[in-house]
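Hi U.,

Before I forget, here's the chain from the pilot set. I'm dumping it here mostly so it's searchable later in email.
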Amino acid sequence: MNTKRINVDALMASSDVRFGTSGVRGLVKRMTEEVCYAYTAAFLQEVVVKSDLVNQADKANLVI
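Structure:
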């Protein structure tokens, strides 16, 4: 599996596709495969982090 580090700030600046509170904003023609992949991967990474925190909290509050 190939990995590539992407700086989201640099990607936003170079593509003019921004991410805000209501999602991705920009011209469709600027939403390249790399831009869409980067935003999707970043979102999924955050979901994993948040779900791990929720699971840890659930385990800490587990009553047997």
